[in-house]
């Protein structure tokens, strides 16, 4: 709208128009720049991860952390799968005023042969940087291999498990198939339901629809996907699965060309009545047969010490920043574990060589690549402080059990160069030994020998300023630049000063001078941490002497 057009409006309309334009600009502004501050991650996966020959599935390349579409990724490469690019799809989520954007490139994948077909990593260019997807596997079976029951000219439910041994703690993918002869018009009304105390169950997805020949007859199939995790071994019974559908058994005027997905699931089940059909729609409960599943314990032979319960197929990689640090300064390591399996039971893998590293608790994030969260990437980020000279960044070791082969597999992240310079921080001084010297009851408290050192926290301020100038971590900068951070140091020194009135004079003087000077001269976050711990120890010791003194006086 031009300025001339705006001037022709009433004042109220001009105000409303200006406000609407402002709101529109504010809504569109965040999308003008890529959201790279949170970091870019890339993942890939099939949906579903198990299919039959000739049955198309989705293959998705998921890019998180940017909203900029810089062209379509190359077609995936896999022997035995035909790929076709469908198009991009973008989603935005705002949580606690933080916006996250996900760009998904969708492909159609049609398997041409049976077996576990592996898709090689795909390289994607984003803002001049190259990112790679993890390896992904599609399991392709022969149609009807899982023993679908012979249809008796009616609808039925079939439960489909992997055709291999199953293990306790494994996140087992399960397909629940609602099968109805193609000449019958029907529609599912309720999600499949079943109760069991022998498994933990994951969420049930919305169905995907297809047609399949079973016993020489065409069936319309709605497949619901979920996961089951056995909690004990032995022959486990799975109770019948129930589902409610609406169905008609006859249809007048139906052509011989078969029905489409819209005819099965998207049309009005009562529309045929208005078209002159004599068939009747009615609700019907479908039930599967009870199944007995043989569940095995994980083997104890050849189990590595680094095994922590991961079951599936995984890859591990890690990065560490910066490449050069001073002794006592933290290194930030990011560990990515991708693949398929029980991600809910995967914790931070152990270090290959933990000697000389002081790790801190990690943050965890999981990016799923399918609806049942069985494939994806789990990321750990943590800080580690080197306590001795190092030439290699932290290396992490992942051991998992592969249920397809029945063996344990151990993989390590790449060893990357790291330079650690500087001398180790001084060890904290031991607390003063207890003394039996009993002061006279009327003797005034001795003069504080460290009063000149402890009048103000200027020494601590100087130390904090020096650390900031030498490149302290962002967390330390934020703590030191706030009044609360300096006040915490001041309270620590003030408490030490008051407690030293109750300790032996000569020991108090020596301990206080050493501690305060070392704290003021700290050159790294590691040294600062050690000296603060020493302050706390000295404070606790001083309070302990005061309690002992009161006990002696009382006696």
Describe this protein's structure.
The structure is a single chain. The protein has 555 residues and is an alpha+beta fold. The protein folds into 4 domains: 41-141, Immunoglobulin-like, CATH 2.60.40; 156-296; 307-421, Immunoglobulin-like; 458-554, no CATH class. It has 9 helices and 29 strands. It has helices at 3-7, 11-28, 261-266, 271-274, 458-469, 474-481, 483-500, 505-520, 525-554, and strands spanning 41-47, 50-52, 57-64, 81-95, 98-111, 115-119, 123-126, 129-132, 136-141, 156-160, 166-167, 172-181, 185-188, 199-201, 208-214, 217-230, 234-238, 242-248, 282-287, 291-296, 307-321, 324-326, 331-341, 357-359, 363-368, 375-386, 397-402, 407-412, 419-421. Strands 21, 23, 24, 25, 26, 27 and 28 form a 7-stranded mixed sheet that branches. Strand 27 (397-402) and strand 28 (407-412) form a beta hairpin. The N and C termini lie far apart (92 Å). Residues 1-7, 23-38, 146-152, 250-277, 447-457, 471-479 and 551-555 have low confidence and may be disordered.
């Amino acid at each position: 709208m031009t300025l001339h057009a705006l001037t022709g409006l009433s004042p109220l309309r001009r105000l409303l128009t200006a406000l609407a334009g402002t709101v529109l600009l504010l809504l569109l502004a965040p999308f003008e720049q890529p959201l790279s501050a949170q970091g870019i991650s890339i993942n890939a996966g099939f949906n579903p991860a198990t299919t039959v020959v000739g049955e198309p599935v989705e293959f998705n390349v998921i890019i998180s952390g940017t909203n900029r579409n810089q062209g379509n990724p190359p077609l995936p490469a896999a022997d035995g799968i035909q790929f076709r690019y469908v198009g991009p799809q973008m989603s935005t989520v705002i949580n606690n005023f933080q916006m996250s954007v996900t760009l998904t490139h969708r492909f159609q994948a049609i398997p041409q042969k049976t077996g576990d077909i592996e898709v090689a990593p795909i390289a994607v260019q984003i803002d001049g940087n190259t990112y790679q997807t993890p390896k992904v596997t599609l399991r392709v079976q022969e149609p009807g291999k899982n023993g679908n029951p012979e249809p008796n000219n009616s609808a039925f439910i079939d439960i489909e498990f992997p055709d291999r041994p199953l293990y306790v703690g494994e996140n087992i993918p399960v397909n629940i198939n609602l099968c109805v002869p193609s000449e019958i018009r029907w529609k599912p009304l309720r999600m499949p339901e079943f109760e069991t105390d022998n498994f933990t169950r994951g969420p049930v997805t919305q169905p995907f629809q297809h047609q399949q020949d079973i016993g020489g007859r065409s069936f319309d199939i709605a497949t619901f996907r979920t996961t089951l995790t056995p909690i004990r071994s032995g022959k486990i019974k799975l109770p019948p699965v129930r589902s409610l559908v609406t169905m008609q058994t006859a249809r007048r005027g139906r052509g011989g060309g078969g029905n489409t997905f819209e005819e099965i699931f998207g049309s009005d089940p009562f529309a045929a009545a208005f078209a002159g059909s004599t068939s009747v729609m009615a609700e019907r409960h479908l039930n599967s047969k009870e199944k007995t599943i043989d569940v095995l314990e994980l083997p104890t032979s050849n189990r590595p010490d680094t095994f922590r319960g991961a079951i599936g197929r995984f890859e591990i990689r890690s990065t560490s920043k910066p490449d050069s640090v001073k002794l006592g300064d933290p290194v930030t390591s990011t560990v990515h574990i991708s693949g398929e399996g029980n991600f809910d039971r995967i914790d931070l893998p152990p270090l290959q060589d933990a000697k000389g590293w002081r790790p801190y608790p990690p943050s965890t994030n999981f990016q799923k690549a399918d609806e049942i969260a069985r494939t994806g990437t789990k990321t750990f980020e943590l800080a580690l402080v080197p306590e001795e000279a190092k030439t290699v960044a932290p290396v992490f070791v992942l051991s998992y059990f592969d249920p397809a082969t029945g063996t344990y597999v151990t993989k390590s992240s790449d060893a990357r160069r790291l330079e650690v310079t500087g001398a180790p921080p001084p060890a904290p001084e031991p607390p003063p030994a207890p003394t039996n010297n009993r002061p006279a009851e009327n003797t005034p408290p001795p003069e504080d020998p460290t009063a000149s050192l402890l009048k103000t926290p200027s020494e601590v301020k100087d130390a904090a300023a020096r650390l900031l100038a030498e490149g302290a971590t962002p967390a330390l900068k934020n703590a030191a630049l706030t009044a609360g951070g300096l006040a915490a140091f001041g309270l620590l020194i003030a408490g030490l000063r008051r407690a030293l009135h109750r300790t032996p004079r000569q020991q108090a003087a020596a301990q206080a001078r050493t501690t305060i000077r070392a704290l003021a001269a700290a050159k790294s976050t590691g040294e600062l941490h050690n000296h603060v711990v020493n302050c706390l120890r000295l404070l606790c010791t001083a309070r302990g002497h005061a309690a002992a003194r009161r006990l002696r006086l009382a006696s």
